[in-house]
User: Fold this.
Amino acid sequence: TVNPCCPLITHKELIKASKDFAKSNKKLPLISSTEYPAPIEWAYFKNERNILLPLNKNNLFKRSQNFKKKYYEVGAFIIFPKIFFDSANYSSKNFIPFNLPREKSVDIDTIEDWKFAEKLYKLQFNVK
Assistant:
């Protein structure tokens, strides 16, 4: 399935993803993903007094190079294996990644996302 919330992907990414899926064992779904821009181990949350608190104080002063890279699903597309359509109870917790660069990974959920995607579109496709 191709989702409309990531308009910066092109047919080239879809063709490459399809080829990557064909090279795999075709038993796991392939998802569009990208790398987090910063270690998620450095995450904070806001408390009820609007104060930022670290999720894990022990990670605050560790170098980013000391963490494994983390990825998230972009939501641009998923390629499902045939078994997904043949079995009512198919489920998989493992996925084949198709990593997109960040400039192709804008997920439009807000007007700010839309404006950011417009700027990236103009840069990528030389639109004035």
Observations:
- The CA atoms of residues 39 and 68 lie 8 Å apart.
- The two ends are 31 Å apart (CA to CA).
- The beta strands are 30-35, 44-46, 52-54, 71-79, 96-99.
